[in-house]
Amino acid sequence: MKTISTFLCLVFFIFFFEKAEAQNFQGILNSEISESNPGILFTIQSGDESFSWSGASGLNNLAIGDSLKSNQTFRIASVTKTYVAASILRLMEMGVLKLDDPISKHLSPTHAEILSQDYDLDQITIRQILRHSAGIFDHTNAPEFFEIVLQTPEYEWTRTEQLRLCAEKGEPIGPPGKQFSYSDTGYVILGELIEKYTGKSLDGGIKELLGLEKLGLERTDFERIDPQTDKLRIHQYFQGRDTYNFSPTMDYFGGGGIVSNTQELVDFFQALFQGKIFEQPETLEQMLEPVSYTEKARMDYQMGMYRIKVNGMDAYCHSGFWGTQVIYIPELDLYMAANYSGGWRGSVAPIFGKMVEEKK
């Protein structure tokens, strides 16, 4: 009888402790809401999955005042690059390409002709593009790009048009491999390789190479692919402007394009770091291999991933333009993902440090 009583006490203690912890987490989420940031979605999960919590706070569509829900999806923007980089590494594992292949070996003739106006494509390798060290001008830095996006948000872009913008409106940043310079255009190029060698759309190619459906990631899709994923998509804001009806093609061809939720972002990062994506553990080591340059890079970027500090601890992460960030802290074996619907400033979303402190 005493054993049963002790067990029940333990159960009640755990229940009330977890309930109090969840309330604290929710309180932290609530504190992140402001006039410039109307909503936030968040997931935190331990590597062994003994602990997992997801939450939401704030409003979705400000025009009608509906509340955000934790299972809702959003444009993850440049976090898509992690999926693209992993897919290229899977093609490497399959022997389809080598990281030190010149990109001239793999580009379509049409796109090679456009880019060769400014670039020696025989000197630019896939590895350099993965690391943003190829010296390729980022087409999103052309003034014309955001002029069109903001003035004609419904405009339908193509990959070819974005590559042409790169070649015609900017100059090479520097010699291949000699400097870090973040370039959406580079990952637009990598997106073409995935389509070429899988014979599928970028959505289908990434899902096939990474086994996303086998991992149970049902709400991770390129926009316009799955109606249910699109239906769950939240309103995201840029300088107070609702971007919900902006054409996804502005950021769709490898530099961005995926829609997901915080739980599935965490699940993908966990699968990646736990060896469930690549065939060989050495592939993840290659992906995360440190890179150094003569001039210190503004980001500690590897391949579709970069390192930051969270409360003094090393973390691997990627972030996206529309307020998304996903991180893994090896020291704590802890995964987190967040979306601020109004974005945030700085290299690390403020919520992560607060949640880590609370979890301790």
Describe the structure.
The protein has 360 residues and is α+β, with helices and mostly antiparallel strands. Helices cover 37% and strands 15% of the residues. The strands form three sheets. It has a seven-stranded antiparallel β-sheet, with helices on both faces. The chain has a three-stranded antiparallel β-sheet with strand order 3-7-4. A hairpin with a 4-residue loop joins strand 11 and strand 12. The relative contact order is 0.17.
DSSP strand count: 12
Which descriptor suits the 3D outline?
globular
Count every helix, treating DSSP H or I runs of 4 or more residues as helices. Answer: 12
**Low-confidence segments, ≥5 residues, pLDDT <50?**
7-17
Order of helices and strands: HEEEHHHHHHHEHEEEHHEEEEEH
Report the β-strand fraction as a percent range.
15-25%
Mean of residue pLDDT values: 95
Distance separating the two termini? 35 Å
Strand neighbour order, sheet with most strands: 2-1-12-11-10-9-8
The main β sheet shows up as: 7 strands, antiparallel
Give the structural class.
alpha+beta
Gyration radius, rounded: 21 Å
Helix content: 25-40%
